TrEMBL record:
<feature type="region of interest" description="Disordered">
    <location>
        <begin position="142"/>
        <end position="171"/>
    </location>
</feature>
<dbReference type="InterPro" id="IPR036770">
    <property type="entry name" value="Ankyrin_rpt-contain_sf"/>
</dbReference>
<keyword id="KW-0040">ANK repeat</keyword>
<feature type="repeat" description="ANK">
    <location>
        <begin position="63"/>
        <end position="95"/>
    </location>
</feature>
<keyword id="KW-0677">Repeat</keyword>
<dbReference type="InterPro" id="IPR050776">
    <property type="entry name" value="Ank_Repeat/CDKN_Inhibitor"/>
</dbReference>
<feature type="repeat" description="ANK">
    <location>
        <begin position="30"/>
        <end position="62"/>
    </location>
</feature>
<dbReference type="InterPro" id="IPR002110">
    <property type="entry name" value="Ankyrin_rpt"/>
</dbReference>
<dbReference type="Pfam" id="PF12796">
    <property type="entry name" value="Ank_2"/>
</dbReference>
<feature type="compositionally biased region" description="Basic and acidic residues">
    <location>
        <begin position="142"/>
        <end position="155"/>
    </location>
</feature>
<protein>
    <submittedName>
        <fullName>Ankyrin repeat domain 37</fullName>
    </submittedName>
</protein>
<dbReference type="GO" id="GO:0005737">
    <property type="term" value="C:cytoplasm"/>
</dbReference>
Amino acid sequence: MLMLDCSSESGSFSNLFETGTAVNAPADASGQSPAHLAACGGEAFFLLWQLQTGANLNQQDCLGEAPIHKAAKAGSLECLALLVAGDAKIDLCNNSGQTAADLALDYGFLECAKFLRTIQHTQTMKLRGQSGYWLSDRLGLQREDPTAQKQESETSRSINRKRRRSDDLVS
């Protein structure tokens, strides 16, 4: 497979595809697939083509980065949207323990980071069934607040006691 830097020269992508590189090409020295390269260059058209031909959205390179990490580093909201729509793992961490949202923030792409955090939050709420109270920790991860459950339980017990007292007065 041809190695490309992450520039968005469409000629470089043409060369890659003319050489007949497979959609999930075996890892080369850096382990980057054509989907990695398309995402890294912000080439949404080429990435869409890769996704339609069965590219592995979560294939990691030698840095532990999947195409979603590459798109976040490039600041390509279009590529991120394609990857999210294709069910790429948003919470996948690279070898440094960073998610795509973390990388987008590090590279100064605030809109991309906000998009990824919003999608992640929405997915978390769906998984949790939207019950209980939630807190965000410093990483933006959603965590259930155990004190909120206790307060809710104590409030309902207090209301039940008041109902029993009023029932006793009526009798």
